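Hey,

The postdoc asked me to send both predictions to you directly instead of through the lab channel. I've kept everything plain text so nothing gets mangled by the mail client. Protein one:
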Amino acid sequence: MQSSPYQPGQDGRDGPPEKVRMPGVLILVLVVVAAHALGTVIGGWAILEENRSKQEHGQDLLMPMGLAWFVALFSWGLAALQVVCVVLARKRRSWVRVVLIVCLSFAAFSTLIGFLGSLASGAPNLAVFVIAGLDAAALWTVCGETGRHYFSVRGPAPTSVRG
């Protein structure tokens, strides 16, 4: 008979600690963050590709090539951080919530500026408005009680068998 590392009665419970399910709304937030990570990767690549294309055709660059590489690498690093947060969200680390708040704040602000820019140009972009609304709702969820509760509450510490 195999013995379990969990000894009933040590912490006042009779069974193993129960697993907490991630709320569905937080799963939707993680899907939004993953989509933003994908868009950020594509955006970094697009800046480099556009600069390369302009350089080949003898046109003025969007920005100096060194700055383009910096922006692309920064974008890819930010995307990697977002993917790490999505993957580690199940571990319920409080720092994941903080990083999600910062990334979603940046995304919500950026999409809001993009929508205002489209309004100023006379061609309102409804898709950007919808994405800005999704970002604001995701930010509200992570900052709110749902996010605070999920990322701050942990199960009991694992117990070891003393012998």
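Protein two:
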Amino acid sequence: MTTTATPTPTPLAGAYMPEILSLAKRGLFWAILYGLFARGVRGGCLTPADGATTCYTATLDPSPLVWLAMAVIFVISLGRASRATETTVVSRVLRRAATAMWLLPLVAAAIGLVTFFTADPAAWADTPPPPNVRYEITTD
């Protein structure tokens, strides 16, 4: 009785270690840029009909959810690349992850800044601001 061994596919992620390290470095680079540029400060005073002046200062900070999403993208792409058995699949997974690693913080920063600077400050007096916005109100 002879048994034939079926060849098991060899994972290719080890051969792509330079690309994986490059993905990690680029992800770190974009995470740092997001942390630096997704900030804003806005202030002013509102005078309602009763005559009491209400002044506010709002500070936008980077959202930790963006960093978490970037880490999840990196980990999932590593998992998919480690299970891949074809070079085209590994390349595609790493290429898509690299695109997501710069696109996510760029879009999140743009949306956050536009929303922050175009929002009506009077609305924040009645409802709480988003979690990554610190809001201080002083009334005269």
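Summary for protein two, as requested: The radius of gyration is 24 Å.

Thanks,
C.
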